[in-house]
Amino acid sequence: TLLLGAEPEKVCAMPDPALPDSDIKSLTTLCDLADRELVLNISWAKHIPGFSSLCLSDQMSLLQSAWMEILILRVAFRSLLCEDKLVFAEDYIMDAEQAKSAGLLELHKAILQLVRRYRSMRLEREEFVTLKAIALANSDSMHIEDVEAVQGLQDSLHEALLDYECVHHREDPRRTGKLIMTLPLLRQTSAKAVRHFCSIKQDGRVPMHKLFLELLEANV
Amino acid sequence: KEKHKILHRLLQNSS
Given an 8 Å threshold on Cβ–Cβ distance, is A211 in contact with B12? Predict the structure, then answer.
């Protein structure tokens, strides 16, 4: 219930109508959207029961490792009802053709693979919010100071997922495991996205906001 | 940590 209540509000992409359509415009819109979502995701993290009790340095390490996974999981969940398209925002839905023009076809395909996996499982909102918190707590940062405290957070979120499945999916005792087993694909897709946006950053043609840049640099 | 000023600031904000 706390995780459902902590979900950030929807964000609109609002592509700049003054800019002509181009790959630069698409990427600028996405980077701007990601930057605004990141601000919301940081305050979301603070509402995860137990997260704020971690030391500040561990809170930072978890977010620096998992920020892209969180962004991608949110896009994947929003895209569940939309066949072959990614719903970056309600006003920014991208099909393969548009992704190709933005140079994002590989990433589009990878995220759609994740969407198909969740769609075939009929991922529910309760599972989505818990899985997202687990992705954060389980981000495998190399810089954790209090490993036991982070393990405690992982355990309590894992427990919440087990409890939910025990009540709502008695028919499939392996559902929790199936959900957890989607996390490697999420990690892989996130690493692909970080690499791609790092190379866009190096090109220097797309303006990026400071928080997005800061987190992109944390992953290099 | 110096390099991650914005993340640090946002985490310290009370909201």
Answer: no
